[in-house]
Design brief:
The complex is a heterodimer of chains A (261) and B (390). Chain A is an alpha/beta fold. Chain A has a single domain, classed as 3-Layer(aba) Sandwich (Rossmann fold), CATH 3.40.50. Chain A has six helices and 13 strands. In chain A, helix 2 (67-76) runs antiparallel to helix 5 (190-198) and helix 3 packs across helix 4. Chain B is of the alpha+beta class and 390 residues long. Chain B folds into three domains: 7-123, Acyl-CoA dehydrogenase/oxidase, N-terminal domain (Butyryl-Coa Dehydrogenase, subunit A, domain 1), CATH 1.10.540; 125-233, Butyryl-CoA Dehydrogenase, subunit A, domain 2, CATH 2.40.110; 235-389, Butyryl-CoA Dehydrogenase, subunit A, domain 3 (Up-down Bundle). In chain B, strands 1-4-5-8 form a four-stranded mixed sheet. In chain B, strand 2 and strand 3 form a beta hairpin. The longest helix of chain B is centred in the middle third of the chain and has 37 residues, at 234-270. Classes of the chains: A alpha/beta (261), B alpha+beta (390).
Chain lengths: 261, 390
């Protein structure tokens, strides 16, 4: 089984603030980490590799510093890593990013399954995974909370959707995006940490992927960010404690805009 | 203090710190309360490759990567002990149990037993103590009688750390009662051997996450091949083992003390009395300063001793005893002071320092009481003085 896990380096925390004037994220002083949802994808990939044999390759598109999260993934047990990095990739939106990642999966060849987190905690778009599948013209199963079965030919996965669970069977190759329900990611091991310092991580650029300039980076991105704002907090919730009768009355009064008696 | 640990040793520290945060700290009070062995945590340590750090590569470990294994073991034990002395000793006691095989075992014995211990698939325990043989190993009553290709063991071992959890036991028994300590021999006994059973599990003051049990041998027949070294060499094997493992107990003591110091310093920075943080009072400041200095001095002694062992020095009995006696006395003092700084809160089980104080006490007692350690140090000193006089 040849498994690819696409991962993203993200700022560590939901506390990232927005520079209101520029409409950009203030990233200074905030350490970068492996996107937590991608850890579930990595763990799932390693579990199936351990059971079926094969390899887990982690792949990330980003600046040279993104190599750090690839090394972290190797310390947790990934077999190999590939970094997609090129000045030409800068400014990519989810379309250009997923198109580039898909090209790299194609270049690797014979990949059976791509796994990734349901979304990244910085952009929260949840688009890159599905878009990689679209670009490869592969089937996809998003929001997977449990992989029931996986073999050389097919997968059966449970997709957790609001208020229910869809059980989906698909042929391979396939792309799946993972939820945190899927597993508990393992800690790095000593052998993994040592390997992660020594491993050679190839860097693939635009030319390696034979991509035209207008399909990568800012030029290849149809999305334009017009403005970024922090939503205004319009009203605060209220918490009341008491007997049901009392609370029901309070609620009705509030809804009708009446002063409580 | 910067000890300039190698990247690999720092890896051990980082992994242990992550295990502390994610797996040990959330459950340590519960393990203590329930007197429960941390099987799940031991499994995670095994997956993180922590059990092989003192075992050579040819037997499935990685000791060479860390320049030996004694410093590596000290780093791991100290870090884990910051969170829980009971979990840490459950880990470190494996090294104690494996040490007789590692130091004095035959090539076959090493090949047979060490890989399983290096992977953490199996646990080990060392069994010397009996009801009438503590500091005085000559009092061992457990007998091993040779019968053809076997030895037959009879007797009871007491207070065995990892008892009931380990699969491989290194046991000291009498093969010639007329010769006292020179009649002792060391054996490997596997769990499940007919005639080998477990007695009561002890209810202890501290390190309650660890398992402490009686081992009972009733006509327990083991292959003669399980004899470690030669008949009559048991005492020597035990002493070599303990000399090498004592820096581990010392590291445990340093970790417990550091854990308590961290709690005390944090509390003192948050607690307000008389309108001020209590760490602004000189009375508290001087206590914290003394605690920090003592912990650092103890750590320095432990690392120096462990480095000495790793560098291949043959004689380190005195230094090993010094590290153990000093670090464990520091642990008792520092944890007691930590409870004092936390005051009434420190005495309550809601805060972790009372447990640390209970955990610290054993480090002054096991693997040779501190009084025995002082005798060891003094006799080495007397010998050195006599040698200089010549």
């Amino acid at each position: 089984m040849r498994i690819v896990v696409t991962v993203k380096q993200v700022p560590d925390t939901a506390e990232v603030r927005i520079d209101e004037e520029r409409g950009t994220l203030i990233r200074e002083g905030i350490p970068s980490i492996l996107n937590p949802f991608d850890e579930y994808a990595l763990e799932e990939a390693m579990r199936w590799r351990d059971e079926l044999g094969g390899t887990v390759t982690v792949m990330s598109m980003g600046p040279p510093q993104a190599e750090a999260v690839l090394r972290e993934a190797v310390s947790m047990g990934a077999d190999e890593a590939i970094l997609l990095s090129d000045r030409a990739f800068a400014g990519a939106d989810t379309w250009a990013t997923s198109h580039t990642l898909a090209k790299a999966v194609e270049k690797m060849g014979d990949v059976d399954i791509v796994m990734t987190g349901k979304q990244a905690i910085d952009g929260d778009t949840a688009q890159t995974g599905p878009s990689i599948a679209a670009s490869l013209d592969w089937p996809q199963i998003t929001f997977v909370g449990f992989v029931r079965e996986l073999n050389q030919d097919s997968i059966i996965a449970e997709r957790y959707v609001e208020g229910g669970c869809e059980v989906i069977r698909s042929s391979l190759p396939v792309l799946i995006t993972l939820l945190k329900d899927a597993n508990t990611p393992r800690l790095p091991s000593l052998r993994g940490k040592m390997k992660s310092r020594k491993i050679d991580i190839p860097v693939w650029g635009r030319e390696d992927l034979e991509l035209p300039e207008n399909e990568v980076g800012l030029d290849g991105s149809p999305t334009r960010v017009v403005k970024i704002t922090t939503p205004e907090i319009i009203s605060n919730g209220e918490m009341h404690h008491g007997e049901p009768e009392e609370l029901a009355k309070l609620l009705v009064d509030a809804l009708l805009g009446r002063e409580a008696e | 203090m910067n000890y300039y640990l190698s990247e690999e040793l720092n890896d051990i520290k980082e992994i242990c710190a992550e295990i502390n945060e994610k797996y040990i700290i959330p459950v340590r009070a519960e393990l203590d309360e329930e007197n429960r062995f941390p099987r799940e945590i031991m499994k995670i340590m095994a997956e993180s490759d922590l059990f092989g750090i003192y075992i050579p590569e040819e037997f499935g470990g990685s000791a060479e990567v860390f320049g030996g294994g004694s410093v590596a073991l000290a780093v791991a034990t100290e870090e884990l002990s910051k969170a829980c002395g009971g979990v840490a000793v459950s880990y470190a006691a494996n090294a104690l149990g494996a040490m007789p095989i590692l130091i004095s075992g035959s090539e076959e014995q090493r090949k047979k037993y060490l890989p399983g211990l290096a992977s953490g698939e199996k646990f080990a325990a060392f069994a010397l103590t009996e009801s009438e043989a503590g500091s005085d190993a000559g009092g061992v009553k457990t007998k091993a009688v040779k019968d053809g290709d076997s030895y037959i063991l009879n007797g009871t071992k007491q207070w065995i750390t990892n008892g009931g959890e380990a699969q491989i036991y290194t046991v000291i028994a009498q093969t010639d009662p007329s010769r006292g300590t020179r009649g002792l021999s060391a054996f490997i006994v596997e769990e499940g051997t007919p005639g080998f059973s477990y007695g009561k599990k002890e209810d202890k003051m501290g390190i309650r996450a660890s398992s402490t049990m009686e081992l009972i041998f009733e006509d327990c027949r083991i292959p003669a091949l399980n004899l470690i070294a030669r008949e009559g060499h048991g005492f020597l094997v035990a002493m070599k083992t303990l000399n090498k493992s004592r820096p581990g107990v010392a590291a445990q003591a340093v970790g417990i003390a550091q854990g308590a110091l961290d709690e005390a310093a944090k509390y003192a920075s948050e607690r307000v009395q008389f309108g001020k943080r209590i760490d602004s009072f000189q009375g508290i400041q001087f206590m914290l300063a003394d605690m920090a200095t003592q912990v650092e001095a103890a750590r320095a002694l432990v690392f120096c001793t462990a480095r000495m062992i790793d560098s291949g020095e043959r004689k380190y009995e005195k230094e090993s005893a010094m590290a153990k006696v000093f670090a464990s006395d520091v642990a008792m003092k520092v944890t007691t002071d930590a409870v004092q700084i936390l005051g009434g809160y420190g005495y309550m089980k809601e805060y972790p320092v009372e447990k640390m104080m209970r955990d610290a006490k054993i480090t002054q007692i096991y693997e040779g009481t501190n009084q025995i350690q002082r005798s060891v140090i003094a006799s080495a000193l007397i010998k050195e003085t006599a040698a200089r006089g010549k």
